[in-house]
Amino acid sequence: MRALILLLCLVILSSVRADVPAGWFPFVIGEISPDSPLNMAAANAVPAGQNGFVRVKDGHFVDGRGQRLRFLGTNVTFATAFPDKALAPLIAKRMAAIGFNVVRFHHMDCHYKPSGIWDKAYKDKQHMDAEQLDRLDWFIYQLKQNGIYVNLNLHVSRTLGKDDGFVEDNTLGNYDKGLDNFVAGMIQKQREYARDLLTHENPYTRTRYINEPCVALVEMNNENSLLGFAFSGKLNNIAEPYKAELTGYWHDFLKGKYQTTDALRKAWDEGSQPLGEELLRNRDLAQGAKEWVLESKHPGEDVFEIVDDAVVGKALHAKLVQLGVNPWDFQVHQVGHNLTEGQVYTLRFQIKAEPRRDVNVSARWDVADWRNSGLDTSVKADAQWREFTFAFRARNVNPNHVRISFNGGNTLGDMWIGGVSLRTGGIVGLGEGQTLEAGNIPFASATATQAALRDWAAFIMGLERRYTQGLYQYLKQDLGLQANVIDTQASYGGLGGAWRESKLDYVDNHYYWDHPGWPM
User: Fold this and answer.
1) Cβ–Cβ < 8 Å for 518, 78
2) Where are the alpha helices (DSSP H) in 177-241?
3) Which residues contact 8 (CB under 8 A, 6 or more apart)?
4) What is the 8-class DSSP label of residue 389?
5) Contact 489, 497 (CB under 8 A)
């Protein structure tokens, strides 16, 4: 019997070893001896925060004595932010041994227990689960005892739904991004969560998080900026009542700046260019699919046809039946256009897709090296027809070799395109019948004049700053938070994002080694 067991073990081991590539070896995570030269725990001052609150001085983090700090850390996300209480001391000890002195608590607010902080006894996401909170407290206590600081993230991935009193809308993406920069009710819920979490007393450290010196950093709203959506046209498609709320703020801004419609029209109409001739061939699809091309790896199997649609009339229908190899192996385009360098063009179209996907829309060469010619953007296409308008200035043109392209990605399923139009010009100021008094001035789009675009940028930046500064002051003054605070990554919002973050305690910009594939 023993011989049989030994033989089976050898067979199992040999089969495992056969799968290990040549030159590789097993990597076993074991305890690092306190005496080992590999153990970095001694570099951490214990407990974390023993020398006072972390501050920023002359562009560097310092402790309460003014001594510089350098943070080396990692994330814990979802369920890993709430480890089993028996494991928490081991995890903290291990982290210190390998040289970490800060841990970022990320995506705590996404799910109900056990993957998140919310109590699943409630349908809403406003009640923290007592056991999860206790696990969090215990873990942070263990980190502190091992000299590891904490970075708490407030809003990362909570989505407020109907049970919280909100209409769900993913027009701008997931997790209420963008919307929660201006929707008053969402901002209030952010404040309530911050209050409940940060003023809660950790029974193990015997301090509230607002007064806890091991909490070095707080991020208010991860990867989120209204500026990031301002010029994409997506704000035109957000759900009510959110669009009405944003429209009200927009008109208040314009009234405050111009007072009268005449003054607004005078400013906005400068530099306008009316729409010119149509450039697409067979744009109405009266000649079937003539002049339009489906690019895929299996054109004989994939579908490309003209269909009659009740909403848009005739439409191009493309269906990827068999996957290609590259991300661009499912495209619909019209080739052979002769654009003029520096000329403004306006592209309009309607699109839908099943399953939902991001569709890249571009003007680029139709020959190698497929260089971009001024338009390169993406839209979210789902089962509902959505209309988009993009104005762009042609650049790097190749005479008679520019194509208008819709790239559906190498994803199986259907894509429909209708009402496509490409015309010169299209830069407009204040539209006919649009007045401050009527309150019917739309959000500025890519087809607006420079004056209108400047006002739109100023409005969005001001609205975002009002959100950011308002929440910052709430945390720091109303709650008395001692930790250093940022809003989000500085790269979200371009130069406006850098300006926004420069008004806070420090600036963050980070990347992940595993992108673009996440979660792994």
Assistant:
1) no
2) 184-198, 227-230
3) none
4) E
5) yes
Asked whether 424 and 279 are in contact (CB, 8 A), the reply is yes
DSSP state for residue 406 in the 8-state scheme? E
Give the separation between CA 330 and CA 351, rounded to whole angstroms. Answer: 15
Give the residue carrying structure tokens 């979490």.
197
Three-state secondary structure call for residue 102: strand
Give the model's pLDDT for residue 4.
Answer: 36
Distance between first and last Cα of the chain: 43
Residue with tokens 């930046």: 461
The phi, psi pair for 214, rounded to 5°, reads -80, -15
| Torsion angles phi and psi, residue 130, rounded to 5 | -65, -40
pLDDT of residue 391: 85
List Cα–Cα distances, 405 to 76, 190, 333, 365, 461, in angstroms.
Answer: 41, 41, 4, 10, 32
- What lies within 8 Å, CB to CB, of 16 at 6+ separation is none
* Count of beta carbons in the 10 Å neighbourhood of residue 188: 10
Low-confidence ranges of the chain (pLDDT < 70): 1-18, 514-520
Structure tokens at 117: 């902080």
- DSSP strand pairing (215-221 vs 149-155): parallel
Q: What is the pLDDT of residue 454?
A: 95
Residues 6+ apart with CB under 8 A from 369: none
Cβ proximity of 101 and 48 under 8 Å? yes
Q: Phi and psi at residue 101, in whole multiples of 5°?
A: -135, 15
Close Cβ partners of 388 (under 8 Å, ≥ 6 residues apart): 233, 348, 349, 350, 351, 361, 379
CA angle 303, 305, 311 (to 5 degrees): 120
DSSP 220-279: EETT--THHHHTSSGGGGPPTTHHHHHHHHHHHHHHHHHSSHHHHHHHHSTT-B----B-
How far apart CA 20 and CA 96 sit, in angstroms, is: 31
d(CA 140, CA 506): 23
User: Looking up tokens 């087809």, which residue turns up?
Assistant: 447
Tell me the longest C-alpha to C-alpha distance in the chain. 98
Whole-number pLDDT of residue 243:
95
Which residue type, as a one-letter code, is found at position 50?
Q
Counting Cα atoms < 13 Å in the Cβ hemisphere of 35 gives 0
Q: Are 280 and 332 in contact (CB under 8 A)?
A: no
What pLDDT does 13 receive? 39
pTM of the model: 0.77
CA atoms within 13 Å, Cβ hemisphere of 133: 17
- The per-type count for the chain, helices as H runs and strands as E runs, is 9, 19
**Any residues with CB less than 8 A from the CB of 513 and at least 6 apart, and which?**
none
Q: What's the alpha-carbon Rg for the chain, to the nearest Å?
A: 28
pLDDT at residue 271, rounded to an integer = 87
Whole-number Å distance between alpha carbons of 466 and 460: 10
Query: How far is the C-alpha of 408 from the C-alpha of 361, rounded, in Å?
Result: 9
